[in-house]
Protein 1
Amino acid sequence: MLLDTASLYYRAYFGVPDSVKAPDGTPVNAVRGLLDFIGRLVQDHRPDDLVACMDADWRPHWRVELIPSYKAHRVAEETASGPDLEETPDTLAPQVPIIEAVLDAFGIARVGVAGYEADDVIGTLSTRASGPVDIVTGDRDLYQLVDDARRRRVLYPLKGVGSLQVTDEAWLREKYGVDGPGYADLALLRGDPSDGLPGVPGVGEKTAAKLLDAYGDLAGIIAAIDEPKSKLTPTQRRRLDESRPYLAVAPKVVQVALDVPLPAFDPTLPHQPSQPELVDALAHRWGLGGAMSRLSSALRS
């Protein structure tokens, strides 16, 4: 089980009241919500391995070089060295170090790699896995990793983590008319304002799906631009032709990396906290006794 950790703690932050605070008044709603997410996932799915994948760089420079608008609207402050600072709610940012400390105290593997997003870590781990993989994320971009043959699916939280949409190839075909790799092509064609991806003007989700159905993949669509007998409308042909520079670089931006140089780590899900005294100390410090106990019980069971 691979967790898109930031995606989940953002959901927890907005799903758990900000009245949940530590004894000193520090909001800990995202921490508590994430711990309960993980406890419920462990309880319901019993994974052998569990990895909390982290955004060591939420806006990698190599993606920005290809498409400068990539996540540009979410930059709070540019930095000369290291990742730009992301615009984050004031009461969420201080909770991230607490989340990291708690995961480490429990012995839950936490992996982030400089220069890469959590999506890239997830893609690499998914590719290396020899058994079935459940990817837990609130980000549809990771639908591109769905692969029935490799028993790889996405669990997408609908309401909390108790209601998960199980995304497999059948669901993708019914919803979007594409398979996993086809979803990446669909996403780059239609664009994504939340990620600063412009897409092809005039090509929305339905048109993108029809083009992929007609021509197979992005390469087939590009080939159709130069094929006079293809059934592209004049407007589609013109817009796709004008978008060639974008279409040449967008796949590398949209597709998750599958070859991230990962550090050595143990993904085995612990059956009890690896540092119980530290867990107790953090529970007391941040007023998280209930959430810590629930996660400990889920691990033991």
Note: The radius of gyration is 21 Å.
Protein 2
Amino acid sequence: MSAADVTSVRPGFALDQERLSRWMAQHVEGFSGPLSIEQFKGGQSNPTYRLTTPGRAYVLRRRPPGRLLKGAHAVEREARVLSALGAVDFPVAKVHGLCEDEGVIGSVFYVMELVEGRIFWDATFSDAPRNERPRYFEAMNETLARLHALVPAEVDLADYGRVGGYFERQIARWSRQYLEDEDAGRDEHLDRLIAWLPSRIPEGDETRIVHGDFRCDNMIFHPTEPRVIAVLDWELSTLGHPLADFAYHAMMYRTPPHIVAGLKGADLPALNIPSESEYIDLYQRLSGRDVRADYDYAIAFNLFRLAAIFHGIKGRVIRGSAASAEASQRVRVLPELTALAWDAARRAGAR
């Protein structure tokens, strides 16, 4: 992370510097001002700031100001999972403190260490030496397998989400959201997926900690080595099925870069990047799980979930409550995304 990743604090997101400094002096070991505040760029739903002092830099994550949906933007959950995983040496930033007193800066927030390293925004790892790219993919795969090896109860996260039935609950949730948003219209592929997905849920259930958004650009790598030193953005983390979490990560092989950080259309041999099949084999060896039988189903499920999210954005654009360039781009790619989802379903046996 570098100076190029931050900008001046945007209008409406200012922090009370004096109150924050007093809180940090009381709750963050070793803190010593004066304090300067910048805001990280990007579209994080939870505003994120860089806090700099003469001796150290920190990261602050907060709930957005204003009225929010119940349960949304739960930064206290992020702080909890980061603290639990850090206690077992999983690569996450150290949490210095959580503040649930909204009187300090206007909303709940937590402060964590600033991890210095590299973020790769492009799934081809174009900024990495060609001969080292396989090791970066191995590092991502190994990190996710490590997460899925943890038993929630053994890291004080037994109640971090509901146990079992992850696919059923997620399909029901996103199907309901899609069907209720009449403004956004209907999509033939999504209608087919809603009818087919519940009939093909994999047998055998398993519950582990899932990240929910495990992508290359949500990781910080060592400044010079192909090694993950911190996994970021735990906002969607919960207890869920590890197959769904791995397939979401491996979905990069099925998606083009203009939809998400993807590899579809890339010349993988020329780039010296493992094939999708090789990547699945690696996860199976590292995790001890056989995921091939239901892999295409899990890919279809994840593409359906992503398409349902984009469909919701389409509804908000139509209603005038989402007017950003990013929102418009997601609306434009929605038909392509739903076609990719149905293609994955057909690979899994849908007709």
Note: Confidence is low (pLDDT under 50) at residues 68-72.
Protein 3
Amino acid sequence: MQVTPLIWIITIAVTIAFFVYEFFAHVRKPHEPTIGESARWSAFYIGLALLFGVGIGMVSGWDFGGQYFAGYLTEKVLSVDNLFVFLLLMSAFAVPKAYQQKVLMIGIIIALVLRGAFIAVGATLIENFSWVFYLFGALLLFLAWRQAFASHDSDPADNRFMRFLRRHLAVADEYHGDRLTVRKDGRRFVTPMLLTIVAISLIDVVFAVDSIPAIYGLTSEAYIVFTANAFALMGLRQLFFLIGGLLQRLVYLTQGLAVILAFIGVKLVFHALHVNELPFINGGRPVEWIPEIPTWFSLTFIGAVIVVAAVASLAKTRGGRQGVASEGEADAELTKDAPPAH
């Protein structure tokens, strides 16, 4: 895939322009987005991402187009999973709804910057050290195991680093609009808004460690990695307000994501064996009989896992809600038929 420096400059400039527009058009004036506003902009950004993938397929070939779509789907699922943590943070820090947009916007911009740095480092490592595929594959398999079996009950607003900040900084008890610091009685205090942004920034680092090796397991093109990440993050703010209630019903999303990460981890290990140069594996020669998993299979597998996880989640939570409703109706019937108390 031929990507000139001019294309990179234009792509980065357009990406920055989108976020600048988002800030001045939607975030600068604090307000809680309506469902209609969130739905329209979510549909716009998803449609734009799909059109971009079609453009890549038409210009550079559908193998690259397939890599983009597989990467975009994976990053979008990871981003939705990230919304769970954002939801916990907003609740733990009691961020007023009118200011949640600004917190999310800053967090998303920091995430894009961090991922851009990780993408550059990953591209350099892949270009110079083929053994890095073993490292990425092992990391993804570990992350898949942790996603599926580790406890996710920790409070991101009360971890060791946040407790350190509270001990060493003067923290105001309440929000002061969307200000990050405030002066009271001649002393400078940081507001809970600043702590929330710091917490989201720390989580963004963890998310980047998850997402960048995952997408490099689907494509080695840094341009596709960057654009898939950028489009996955665009519209994430609106998606937060659109599906905030639905997030609680996606009970199998974590398991589905674990399956996707494990699949990409195996794919990376297979690729590492196929291009092997480590002397203690097969005498430093590629393992020819190891198959390369094709892009179409990756795209199909990832899409199928997402659909199965979503459908199974909604079916389970719907059954649970019906069960609760049935129990409530039964209790009401028993109460109605019971003899009056004396």
Note: The mean pLDDT is 81.
